[in-house]
Each structure stands twice: as C-alpha cells, then as structure tokens.
C-alpha cells in the first residue's frame, strides 16, 4: 500500500455547522498539544460497516462500499488535511468474512460469538495486548430499537459489556493490569435512516450526536499516556510486502492510536419486538 499525498479535507465543510464547531474545537486541542498527524487503523469483521464508518467520519466517500461483495485483500489508506493537521485512516480487510448472521437481541446482550473471540485473539497475537490501551470500541447499527423492557442506554451498555468482557478474556488481560486504561465505547449509525436533531446532526435514539462523540473519544485515546505501538509494514501492506524495517503509524510526539472497529454482526433491520432479527 503506497502512502498517498493528503488531500484537502473538503468533507469537513460538509458537516452541519454545529458538528463543524465541535470538530474544529477538538482538532484545535490536538494542535495545541503539537499533535498534527493522526493515523487510524480500522480492524474487525468483514462486511459490518468499517468502510461506511470511515466515510461518515471523513464526510466523503473515500472507501467504496458495495453490498454483498467481499472486501479487498489489501488495506486502503485515505489521507485528508486541514489547516496543517493531517488525518490518515487505513481501512483493513475483515479478519474473517462475517456474512449475514441473525442473532436475537437477547443473544446479542448475553454473549459474543466465536468469530469475535477469534478476531480478539488475532489482534492480540499480532500487536500484543498493549494495543488495547490504544484502542476504541465502535458499535455500529446503533439506531436499532432495544427489546421490550429495556431502555436504549441499558441495552447499549449490555452490548458493550459483552464485547469488553470478551476482549479481557481473549486478550488474557488481568484486571489489575488495565485499571488505569478503560477502552472507550462509541455507538455509531451510518444508515440514511439515522435520525437528526434541529441542528441537522445525526443523532442516536438517546439524542446524542454521534460523529462529534466519536471524534472526542478518538482525541482522548490519541492523547492518553500509553506508549506507541510499532506496526510491522508487512501487517499493513500484506503478506508480500517488504520485510525491511518497521512502519510507525506516524503521529507527532510519538503519540500513536488505533480505532478497533468491532461489531457483533451485520444487522439487517431494526428490532420491532424482542424476537425480531438484528
């Protein structure tokens, strides 16, 4: 994967004014800390919305999204610049093609499937357990309705708790080792059905504007005190890449961060009742 020259971040100007104000404030705080470049490595299952989330974050269609088509075999990197700040996002192929698997809402809450556990182990084995200190858990399809008897916030909390528990077990993380480093969780909704507030911002069922929330969590992870992760160029470029040297995902002041894109399964439609498919 060659490193593209960053293009002007025109998508930033396409966000609603309220979202722009929040993003400019967050990016300004990074620049005040001399963080002028951030790179996101997006990982997770295939066909669960990684590319769509990247497009939503950048505000442009930088990664092609095609229904029912397998992801490419090579990562795709998009670079955008604004006022001296550069954002790089690397969209990786899914670790495993997830397909479309139906799960009941309560099953989603109760546990994480074997595919999730395999991916957790793959990430940990490839990058080491320290990568989880520089990670962000993103749950897509956040506009789905909770089962009867559960509030939206409780349902969302149960979803994230299941995956976070699987990460701790799959990565063999002892609680005392990560007491000072909690993996942030962000909910996103990429579909055209996403609700909007009076300021035209995309919002979740609890009223939160999710794009500013995602960027806020990203900046928090970017500036935490955990050490950078060294990534082999072979892991990013593919199995036939040159083994010469290592590739640091470049960030000023040695700051390094990753967004770990995670999802419990592709969801075809909202839940009408507790028995509805997701």
Automatic annotation (TrEMBL):
What is a GO molecular function of this protein? Answer: GTP binding
Report the InterPro entries cross-referenced here.
G_AIG1 (IPR006703), GIMA/IAN/Toc (IPR045058), P-loop_NTPase (IPR027417)
Keywords noted in UniProt: GTP-binding, Nucleotide-binding
Every copy of the AIG1-type G domain together lies at 35-239
Protein name per UniProt = AIG1-type G domain-containing protein
Species whose genome carries this gene: Gossypium darwinii
């Amino acid at each position: 994967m060659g490193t593209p020259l960053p293009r002007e971040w025109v998508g930033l100007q396409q966000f609603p004014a309220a979202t722009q104000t929040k993003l400019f404030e967050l990016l300004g705080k990074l620049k005040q800390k001399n963080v002028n470049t951030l790179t996101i490595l997006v990982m997770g299952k295939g066909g669960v919305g990684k590319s769509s989330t990247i497009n939503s974050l950048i505000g442009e269609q930088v990664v092609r999204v095609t229904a029912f088509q397998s992801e490419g075999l090579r990562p795709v990197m998009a670079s955008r610049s604004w006022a001296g700040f550069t954002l790089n996002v690397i969209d990786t192929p899914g670790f495993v093609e997830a397909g479309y698997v139906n799960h009941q809402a309560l099953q989603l809450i109760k546990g994480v499937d074997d595919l999730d556990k395999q991916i957790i182990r793959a990430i940990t084995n490839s990058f080491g357990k320290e990568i989880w200190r520089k990670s962000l858990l993103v749950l897509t399809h956040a506009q789905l309705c909770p089962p009867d008897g559960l509030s939206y916030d409780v349902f969302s909390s149960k979803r994230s708790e299941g995956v976070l528990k699987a990460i701790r077990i799959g990565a063999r993380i002892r609680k005392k080792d990560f007491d000072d480093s909690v993996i942030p969780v962000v909910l996103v909704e990429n579909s055209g059905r996403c609700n909007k507030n009076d300021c035209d911002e995309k919002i979740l069922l609890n009223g939160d504007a999710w794009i500013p929330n995602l960027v806020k969590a990203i900046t928090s992870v970017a500036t935490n005190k955990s050490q950078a992760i060294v990534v082999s160029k072979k892991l990013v470029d593919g199995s036939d890449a040159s083994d010469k040297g290592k590739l640091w995902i470049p960030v000023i002041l040695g700051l390094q961060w990753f967004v770990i894109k995670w999802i419990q399964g592709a969801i075809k439609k909202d839940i009408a009742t507790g028995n509805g498919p997701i």
